[in-house]
């Protein structure tokens, strides 16, 4: 017992870091790293379907605000954090177990295995119905992501509580260190999937690879470890029943007041537009990786590992030198820097001057240093704006808004870029000069939309002092508050519905879903 008590005392202070390490690093990155080899290579989904798939996964992140608010406002047995962390881990474990139990369908393409140990994937269709079994797996991948969002939003609340106790000049260092710790475990997950999912059936070069079912079983072991760690080492104040009721009542009042303030409405609008701009990118990138530069899962994951280390360096650089620099200047500079790097590589690849998977990712390696700054700044603003008792909800709201924007942007992206005919493999296999121009025009539109999107930086304060000044401005129209909430909910519902369209046979051909238009029984082209 004395040994256990000593370990608990030492580890409780770092429990927030480990939980973030486990959820964000391992389970979150595992979810993201298996999408490309599984859905693009193994199931051969069209670009618009894959685009919608990623947006639907964001659905869980769009509801993080609700989970965080419940955690802030409704303690269970006197605890605001631990019970909800365990609920999230239970949802993840359940989804992983269901995926692990069901036999996986045969791959879309025929795989030839030879006696001498070599193997190859042909262009001959093996199982065309694999594409349409994706709906089953989307359901449980979304449940997995929902569990992640649930437990992660609670950990966000813990991080915000601790960050608010930091001095103003160094506020943000705790947040930075949790991001760095998450990236370290992210690397572990990428190594894991990079080597075990580099078989030819996943678009790689190995003759062997691990099945999705076995990967899920290994992930379940991480869940079990997380449950025991959370129970033993999560340290939080225990509230009695009378105080629980007061916390709930006060939380609702604070939230309603917060939604009326102009500074918070601008903050949420910033999140929506950032997500929108992020999603308004041509889906041609996914098909270029598959058809023109032949990206292998192992190489993709190794590149992601290198970029993760560079992002860690970038986070340390921001924490050490840029905490006091204008957030607007940092974001505009980062966006311009990114596009300057991307455009030459896009031109060289699309017009076949250089088609190489390592060259294709060259800009990603350089951009990685500044990649996390946008999200980090958004979270820093949330720390400044968060009232006591709503730490988790305030922090999570920006990500809910951002992901609503991503979902809406995905629908708009599918609709706009559907007219460019860049969704299916055919245009990349024919690879004529006209096809290349079509792909390049879609990239030009993406860059134009991202440039216009830079205007959203004026919705946020320039720095912490201005954030505190905006926060002191009281008042706000009650009508404006109701209208704001109505628009937010409406955008969320519309985004969900429109992102479901590409997943069904009867609607995936529609222009609004990114298709080329549907034909009726008489052959007339419809919307």
Task: Give structural notes.
Helices cover about 70% and strands about 5% of the residues. It is mainly alpha-helical and about 525 residues long. A two-stranded antiparallel sheet has the order 1-2. The chain has a two-stranded antiparallel sheet with strand order 3-4.
Describe the structure in brief.
With 527 residues, the protein is mostly helical. It has helices at 2-12, 15-33, 35-42, 47-62, 64-73, 82-101, 134-163, 173-196, 212-233, 241-258, 262-279, 284-291, 297-322, 327-350, 357-360, 362-371, 373-385, 391-418, 426-430, 433-452, 464-472, 478-500; strands at residues 109-113, 119-125, 518-519, 525-526. The model is unreliable at 1-11 (pLDDT under 50).
Describe this protein with a few key phrases.
single chain, mainly alpha, two-stranded antiparallel sheet, 22 helices, globular, disordered N terminus
Ends apart, CA distance between termini: 69 Å
Note poorly predicted spans.
1-11
Helix content: 55-70%
Number of helices: 22
Record the strand order, biggest sheet. Answer: 1-2
Q: Which series of helices and strands comes N to C?
A: HHHHHHEEHHHHHHHHHHHHHHHHEE
Chain-averaged pLDDT: 77
Class based on secondary structure composition and strand pairing = mainly alpha
Strand content: under 5%
Instruction: Characterize the largest beta sheet: strand count, sense, and whether it forms a barrel.
Output: 2 strands, antiparallel
Structure summary, number of beta strands? 4
Computed CA radius of gyration, to the nearest angstrom: 23 Å
Outline type: globular
């Amino acid at each position: 017992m004395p040994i256990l008590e000593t370990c608990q005392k030492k580890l409780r202070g770092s429990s927030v870091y480990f939980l973030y390490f486990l959820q964000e690093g391992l389970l979150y990155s595992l979810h993201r790293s298996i999408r490309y080899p599984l859905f693009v290579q193994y199931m051969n989904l069209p670009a618009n379907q894959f685009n919608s798939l990623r947006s639907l996964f964001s659905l869980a992140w769009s509801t993080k605000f609700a989970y965080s608010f419940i955690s802030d406002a409704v303690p269970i047995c006197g605890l605001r954090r631990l019970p909800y962390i365990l609920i999230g881990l239970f949802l993840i474990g359940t989804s992983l177990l269901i995926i692990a139990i069901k036999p996986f369908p045969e791959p879309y393409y025929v795989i030839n295995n030879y006696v001498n140990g070599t193997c190859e994937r042909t262009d001959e269709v093996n199982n065309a119905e694999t594409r349409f079994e994706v709906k089953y797996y989307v359901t449980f991948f979304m449940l997995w992501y929902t569990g992640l969002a649930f437990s992660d939003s609670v950990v966000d609340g813990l991080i915000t509580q601790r960050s608010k106790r930091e001095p103003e000049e160094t506020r943000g260092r705790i947040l930075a260190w949790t991001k760095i710790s998450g990236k370290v475990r992210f690397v572990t997950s990428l190594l894991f999937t990079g080597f075990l999912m580099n078989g030819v059936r996943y678009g790689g070069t190995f003759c062997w690879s691990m099945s999705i079912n076995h990967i899920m079983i290994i992930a379940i072991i991480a869940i079990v470890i997380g449950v025991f760690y959370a129970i033993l080492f999560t340290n939080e104040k225990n509230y009695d029943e009378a105080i629980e009721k007061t916390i709930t009542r006060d939380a609702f009042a604070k939230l309603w007041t917060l939604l009326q303030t102009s500074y918070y409405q601008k903050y949420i609008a910033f999140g929506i537009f950032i997500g929108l701009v992020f999603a308004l990118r041509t889906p041609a990138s996914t098909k270029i990786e598959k058809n023109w530069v032949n990206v292998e899962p192992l190489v993709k994951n190794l590149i992601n590992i290198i970029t993760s280390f560079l992002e860690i360096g970038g986070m340390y650089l921001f924490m050490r030198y840029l905490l006091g620099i204008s957030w607007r200047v940092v974001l505009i500079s980062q966006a311009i820097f990114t596009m300057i790097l991307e455009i030459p590589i896009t031109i060289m690849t699309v017009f076949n001057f250089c088609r190489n998977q390592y060259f294709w990712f060259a800009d990603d390696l350089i951009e990685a240093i500044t990649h996390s700054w946008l999200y980090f700044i958004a979270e820093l603003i949330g720390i400044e704006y968060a009232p006591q008792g709503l730490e988790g909800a305030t922090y999570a709201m920006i990500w809910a808004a951002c992901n609503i924007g991503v979902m809406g942007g995905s629908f708009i992206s599918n609709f706009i870029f559907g007219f460019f005919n860049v969704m299916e493999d055919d245009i990349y296999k024919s690879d004529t000069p006209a096809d290349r121009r079509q792909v390049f025009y879609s990239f030009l539109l993406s860059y134009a939309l991202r440039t216009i999107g830079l205007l959203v930086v004026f919705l946020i304060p320039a720095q912490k002092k201005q954030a505190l000044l905006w926060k002191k401005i009281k008042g706000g129209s009650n009508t404006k508050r109701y209208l704001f909430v109505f628009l937010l909910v409406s955008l969320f519902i519309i985004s969900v519905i429109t992102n479901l369209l590409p997943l069904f046979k009867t609607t995936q051909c529609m222009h609004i879903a990114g298709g080329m238009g549907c034909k009726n029984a008489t052959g007339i082209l419809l919307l």
